[in-house]
Structure formats: structure tokens, C-alpha cells
Design goal:
about 240 residues; alpha+beta; BirA Bifunctional Protein, domain 2; SH3 type barrels; 2 domains; seven-stranded mixed beta sheet; five-stranded antiparallel beta sheet; 6 helices; globular; binds biotin
């Protein structure tokens, strides 16, 4: 994997998109930064990105445009991070589609952007992980959030942690290229937050309420509705 580490930039995803022509087309480039002035979250939200304390990284690579389950790549990255956290002795949950939680609070978010150029999908898989962020910064996030430091009481080496994630994601991307989301389904579903509980979800058009039931083979959410029908949500946000 190629590495580009920068000091403070607007957003690693934005930077990656602007410099994609200079990046290797046959391997992953991981662009990381010490801080972001315009960190972007899903659904147009802002990602709080103070300098020097957290991981802000974008994994850039190309896949054939027809790759199986391409839209589930963010869930693969969520599985990679969960695997690393489990190896560290922690107990992560995944809030569908790709938030990683510790003790019900958000530790990490993933923003996957894909550009299609003829038969090629150019992937910009951005991840933010709250590593050594203090409670005062966490309080400025508009939802319950946490960091590895808050959860464990220890200061973490963010470079070492990013290296572990890079190693795990390299393995997982290899599996994904061969088998799509299938190798990740069981781990992902076992870590699913709110499973069996009533949740609400906005799919971009409509609000749904039902029981968080399970995950389809390609990473969509099975919501069990009050009328006893199963409804599949392909993209959206739980709230
Ligand atoms: C979300 O949960 O809304 C997704 C957050 C993604 C944040 C990361 S930080 C690195 C990369 N650069 C960005 O601007 N966003 C992603």
C-alpha cells in the first residue's frame, strides 16, 4: 500500500479526488492527515477533525465497475475496523450501515465515494476514527461520541493503529474482490447494533419504523415492519 501523510488539509477524501490522476491505478493509496478543516461526513454532515489526535484517512483504489456488491465496500471497511478493535480486546458494535460504536457511542464513521470512469470504479473510502480525542471536543459532535482514549484510559499510537487497519483492510479487500460481501456477512451481522430492537430509519425519501432484524447477503438492512412484512433498506440512516 502506498502512503501519503499530510499535515492539515481540507478533507482527505476531497484531496484524494483532486489528486487521483497522480495516484497509482494498480494498488491502494492511503492518504491520511493530522487534521482537516472541512472534514466531510455522510449525508452532507461535517466531521469534527481536530489536529494531531485522531485518524483521518482515505483509501483510494480502482475496481472494475461491475464488481459484485460494490456499494457494500463501506461495510467491509467497518468489518476491518471491527476486527482490529476485537484484536485489541475491545467490543465494537456496527450501527448500520457503517458507524462503529463502543458502548453505544460513535467511535468511527466511514464515507465511501465512487466515481465511474467508463468500466472502472474509482473508490475513495474515507474513515475517521476518534483515537485520543478528549471529552471537550467530543461534546461538540451532535451525537453521543467517544474515542479510544476515553474508552480505555490509555493514549493510543495512531500511526500504529492505522498500520493495523491498513493490514487488515488489505486482507479484506482481497476477499471482497473474490467473493463480494459474503465473507463479512456473519461477522457484520453478529456485531449489528440494536439487533432485535425497534429502530427508525430514513431512506432518503421515507421514514420507516420496525425491528432491526438482520443483514441481507449483500449488506442491506432487513427491517421487520409492524405489519409483519420484511422491508429491505439499501441506503439510509438510523436515528
Ligand atoms: C460519517 O460517519 O458521517 C462519515 C465520516 C467520515 C469521516 C472521514 S475523516 C477522513 C475522510 N475525509 C473526510 O472528509 N471524511 C472522511
Amino acid at each position: 500500500m502506498k502512503q501519503i501523510h499530510l499535515h492539515v488539509i481540507d478533507s482527505t477524501n476531497t484531496y484524494a479526488k483532486e489528486h487521483v490522476a497522480q495516484l497509482a491505478s494498480d494498488e491502494i493509496t492511503c492518504i491520511s492527515a493530522e487534521g482537516q478543516t472541512a472534514g466531510r461526513g455522510r449525508l452532507g454532515r461535517h466531521w469534527v477533525s481536530p489536529v494531531g489526535v485522531n485518524i483521518y484517512a482515505t483509501f483510494c483504489f480502482q475496481l472494475p465497475a461491475h464488481t459484485l456488491h460494490l456499494t457494500s465496500l463501506a461495510l467491509v471497511m467497518a468489518s476491518s475496523l471491527a476486527t482490529v478493535l476485537i484484536h485489541e480486546g475491545l467490543h465494537p458494535k456496527i450501527k448500520w450501515p457503517n458507524d462503529i460504536q463502543l458502548h453505544g457511542k460513535k467511535l468511527s464513521g466511514i464515507l465511501c465515494e465512487i466515481q465511474f470512469i467508463q468500466e472502472t470504479a474509482q473508490i475513495f473510502l474515507g474513515i475517521g476514527i476518534n483515537v485520543n480525542m478528549e471529552a471537550e471536543h467530543l461534546a461538540s459532535i451532535g451525537q453521543p461520541a467517544t474515542s479510544l482514549k476515553i474508552e480505555t484510559g490509555n493514549v493510543w499510537d495512531k500511526n500504529e493503529f492505522l498500520q493495523k487497519l491498513q493490514n487488515q483492510f488489505t486482507i479484506d479487500l482481497g476477499k471482497f474482490k473474490q467473493h463480494g460481501f459474503a465473507p463479512f456477512h456473519d461477522l457484520y451481522e453478529n456485531l449489528l447494533a440494536y439487533r432485535g430492537e425497534t429502530i427508525r430509519c430514513f431512506d432518503g425519501k421515507k421514514h420507516w419504523e420496525g425491528i432491526c432484524h438482520s443483514i441481507t447477503e449483500d449488506g442491506q438492512l432487513n427491517l421487520y415492519l409492524p405489519n409483519h412484512q420484511m422491508h429491505i433498506i439499501s441506503s439510509g440512516d438510523l436515528y
